[in-house]
Structures are given as structure tokens and as C-alpha cells.
Amino acid sequence: MYPEGANAMQTLALMIGYGLWFVFVIAWNVTAGVAPTLATPGARRERLYRLVVSLGLMMIVLAPFLAIRGGFQIWTNPPLLAWAMLLVVVAGIALCWWARLHLGRLWSAEVTRKEGHRVVDTGPYRLVRHPIYSGFIVMDLGLALLCGSALALVGVAVIALGLSIKARLEEEFLCDELGAAAYRSYKARTPMLVPRLARRPAAQEP
After folding, report:
1. Binning pLDDT at 50, 70 and 90, where does residue 206 land?
2. DSSP bridge pairs for 37
3. Would you say 80 and 6 are in contact if contact means Cβ atoms under 8 Å apart?
4. pLDDT at position 194
5. What residues make up the domain containing 128?
6. What is the per-residue pLDDT across 77-103, written as a single tens digit (0 to 9) for each?
7. 177 has pLDDT over 60
8. 163 found inside a domain
9. CA-CA distance, 140 to 159, in Å (whole number)?
10. Does the residue 203 lie in any domain?
């Protein structure tokens, strides 16, 4: 159970963090304005990652309610660290929106090929091939650390697994749709989810 006194600030930070998370989820799913869909891999191929991500999200949602009752809580953050984790949540949200706005009409919540689809390698897509998924993981990790719950941490790992499955399916599908050559060089120079600390030096001509 959360101790009284100083940890009231952590409880407030946790409430704000989950409030931002729920507002983000609602806004993310109600905004539209995407290009027409031309092809999808089919619901059957997408079923696995959807199930895995849904399981992880369920753990994230349940974690604070169980932690308040002392279930699965493994630490309590000091106030300064609690607010720092809230900034991590905000950073994850910001990365998601930056990547989505940069994609514009090519964005889709599902694995699809849109009208006018092309390989985007600018903006946040210079850092990683799937910055929206990276943003989701950062946001959920901030919540899990803020909550101090083992269940939330497992939820983040499950979400990361599900998004990795989705990313691989998306890349396989787009290679088939756009041609492997259009994606190969981008994939070779850009990591999937975690940015490199330093960029690779350009290859020298012999």
C-alpha cells in the first residue's frame, strides 16, 4: 500500500500520468484524415500481435489499482523520481505524435499500404524505423516505473514483444508491396526501435 506523507506526491504524479495516458489513447483513436487503404496483410496475420499488445495493455491498466492495495508493488518512488517518470511518459507521447504528424496521410493504426505509400526516412524515421512503437514503449515504461509495479513492468515487456511482432509483419508486408529494394537500404542504416548512440560512418569508396 502507498505510504502516507511524501508519497502523496507520487500518487498525484501517477494519477496525472494515467490521466495523460487515457487522454492520449482517446485522441489517438478518434483523429482521422488518412489516405485510402489499398492493401492489408489480412486480419489473420495481424491476430497475434493484437492479442499480445492487448494483454500487455490490460496489465498496465490493472497495475495501479492492484498497487494501491499492495499487490505486485515492488518499490515506491521518491517525489523527484516520480515527477521525472512523468516526464518520460510525456516524452513517449510526444514521440508518438511527432511521428504520426510526420507521416501525415500515410499513417494507419493497422498494417496497411496506403494510396501514395512510400518509404519515409526523415524526421523521427531517421532515428528508428518505427518511432510510434518506440514512443508507445517509452510511454508505458514511464508509467510502469512510476507505478513501481511488477505487473506493469511485465506489461511493458509484453507490449514491446507485441509491437516487435507487428513491426516485423509490417516490414515483411511493405517489402512485398513496395519492393524489397525500396526498403533494404533504409533497413540497413536505421535500427528498428532503439536509436543508435552514434551514427555509422559512411562507407568509403575504394
Report:
1. very low
2. 114
3. no
4. 93
5. 5-29+44-109+118-189
6. 888 899 999 999 999 999 999 999 999
7. yes
8. yes
9. 9
10. no
Pick the more confident residue, 180 or 172. Answer: 172
Measured in degrees and rounded to the nearest 5, phi and psi for residue 107 equal -70, 145
pLDDT in tens, 5-29: 556 777 888 899 999 999 999 999 8
Q: Which positions ≥6 away from 33 have C-beta within 8 Å?
A: 105
Can you read off the three cell numbers belonging to residue 151?
A: 505487473
Average pLDDT, the chain: 87
Grid look-up 489499398 returns 38
CATH of the domain at 143: 1.20.120.1630
Compute the distance between CA of residue 160 and CA of residue 51 in angstroms, rounded to an integer: 13
* Residue-by-residue DSSP string for 75-142: ----HHHHHHHHHHHHHHHHHHHHHHHHHGGG--SSS-EETT-----SGGGGT-S-HHHHHHHHHHHH
Task: Give the chain's domain count.
Answer: 1
Cα→Cα distances 46→43, 87, 91, Å: 5, 32, 28
What is the C-alpha to C-alpha distance for residues 61 and 92, in angstroms, rounded to an integer? 17
C-alpha cell at 105: 496521410
Residue type, 19: G
Residue 178 is assigned to a structural domain of this protein? yes
Burial class (CB in 10 A: 0-12, 13-18, 19+), 13: buried
196 occurs within a structural domain: no
Alpha-carbon distance of 134 to 95, in angstroms, equals 8
